[in-house]
Amino acid sequence: MRQKGFAHLFVIIAIFIIGLGGVGYSIYKKTTERNQSQQVSETIPTEENQTPALSPTSDQKPTPLSKPKITSTNTPVPTTQSYNGVCDVITLAGSNPNEVVLTYSLTSSGGRYMKEARWDLNNDGQWDHDFSSSNAQVTTNLTSGNSKTVRLQLKLSDNTFTNACIKNISAPSGTWITIWGYVFSDNNCSGFMDSSESGIVDVPVRITKISDYSTYGTTNTDGGGKFSYTSLLNELIEMTVTMTSPSGYKSHPTHIIGSSLMGYGKNTNVQMNIPQVPYASVGQCSF
């Protein structure tokens, strides 16, 4: 009986140990699973630890993404100018002894013509007149001494340029004068050109010095009977105009053409008309 009781006690103790082991194993397994779950939660972000996206009405501004910097070398584009032709400065007399009219000449241009001009009137490196077609002729004064140096450059018809030409200029000696007028058919013998009277074409006219009646210059009338003569005078000269009457005409016997003292400080632009009476009208004239 006693042996049988020990056997029952042993079985109870064994069952208790096995149950205790099962409980311990269950506790161990749950602990292990909990630790693994915590490790996973630390590596995978959840809604609680993620940064919430900004809504359109949020006061917080998103940080802009930085853009890669682009380095520019700014390599200059080479510009070239083509040069053609040779320019030169031409001086003309102005309206007073210190005034000079400047214009240009162009050679070796290969058929190109002047489109625009610019001037440096003191040769100081600064253009006083920039490129313009109106600068084909400019006026300057000799303010110090009797001469100065000027610089000119031309822009040509194909947009090429001449090299700048530099020239020392001085005032031309004298003053420009012009004598002009009409040789006309004086049909009513009045000695004056009326609106109904016309000029006589291609008549030679002499510019004559009163002092000795020598010929100073010659010109011819144009298609309207007008003549014009321009010259540079370096002295004062009393002048008039004379001519030989063309075929079919005779000079007005009583009309005095007159004369004019031409030169600086005196007359520089004078009109002198020359009436010619047609033979057909001579009988009607009261002279």
UniProtKB/TrEMBL annotation:
Q: Which domain of life is it from?
A: Bacteria
Major subcellular location class? secreted
Q: Where is this region: Disordered?
A: 34-78
Q: Which is an annotated Pfam family here?
A: SdrD_B
Q: List the Gene3D superfamilies.
A: Immunoglobulins
What GO terms fall under cellular component here? Answer: extracellular region
Q: Which residues cross the membrane?
A: 6-28
Which compartments does it reside in?
Secreted
**Cell membrane: present as a keyword of the record?**
no
| Protein's name according to its UniProt entry | SD-repeat containing protein B domain-containing protein
Native species: Candidatus Woesebacteria bacterium GW2011_GWB1_39_10b
